[in-house]
Amino acid sequence: MQKKIIIIGAGPTGLGAGYRLKELGHQNFKIFEKNSYVGGLSASFTENGYTFDIGGHVIFSHYEYFDKIFNELLGQNFQSCQRSAHIYLQDKFIPYPFQNNIQFLGKEQILECLEGLVEIQGETGLNLRNEAQNFQEWVYATFGKGIAKYFMNPYNFKVWAHPLTMLSKNWIAERVSVIDLKTILRNVIMQTKDSGWGPNNTFKYPLFGGTGGLFSKFEPLFSDNLVLNTEIKKIDYENKIIYFADKSETYDILINTSPLDIFINQIAPQKIDLIEKAKNLLHNGVFVVGIGVNKKIETSKSWVYFPEDKAPFYRLTYLANYSPNMTPDQSENTNLLLEISYSKYKKEDKNKIINDAIQGLINTQIINEADRAEINSTFLFDAAYAYPIPSLARDEALNEIIPFLEAQDIYSRGRFGLWRYETGNMDHSLMQGVEVIDLILNQQKEVTRYLS
User: What are the beta bridge partners of residue 244?
Assistant: First the structure.
């Protein structure tokens, strides 16, 4: 008899787990989702003909399995895109990554960045990096004072909304381009644009429906297994019962993809020691603001980073450059996606955030004052859980919480279920769902959850 598997959450991880169960012929499972839609943070919404994602998502994959699912669900209904990313700094657009393109700064700023780089070369920098106790110290030891001053420090605070001294240095991997002084010097002297770094240099994007256009394709696969608009209230792990507002459900195996700090407070009997540990699981929130403009903004850019205070947002995405079907009429309209992080260390006023974002667009010359009258649609999504912070005490907390849960046949996976930003891309998240099913049913070792 098949074990009854319950999955909490229909984001990429929960959908990946459900897909794998179906593939393996395991029918005894249910997915419970609190929202009225699937996809989690990878969902998309269309208002007044403008489609907006929950953040500046692009689809690139580290996995053949993910590619197989992508091709199966979308077929040819996607567009291949070449990344064109920039940083807006000192009233100009600098190619991304910043540290590879300091030649586009003013002469004094170039000199300041180079002097900072020279100071941390050789054993000095190596020792500083090895001794760094947090992300802030690692930034100085890796990039020097100049690059830290102009980009790394202000930009990362705008993203994480936490002091960089609270972040570990262990999440970096392919997320940050590190420095090769010879390359930097060559770029400065030869005035060479160097923008090819990174795993998302090329990416795919659905032709219809934004990023959610991929994940909405999963829903028909689970017509008998998916329950929307249903929120978990309590989990009795001793008797293996989940309680909802108006019903309960038994299970043999539970897969959680909801935020781990919330989930650990929902289990009963309560584990006070684990609840205390979960307080070290930090996160930020992000206000996602969409602006629909009744005007075609001509640009080939994919997205732009904003380290300065001229704009509240840390990133702007030109969604219409991902697909021609993101606006009512691509020849006459533009949709701009803006992300503004918040936390107790970086407070933002939700009631003012759309107006602040529009003013930021004007301050940075993305639109002009006259364009206010051409804005014919706005969108606001409050992603209260946006980035799981790789905080200094995170791993210690996870090393106690995850083993306890697994001893109770509860597997917590995904961006916030496992609380690992470094394996929080869409492909990583989906594969965590696939791999945990292979672990549960076939005792196959997981890979993605252990990536650094």
Answer: 232
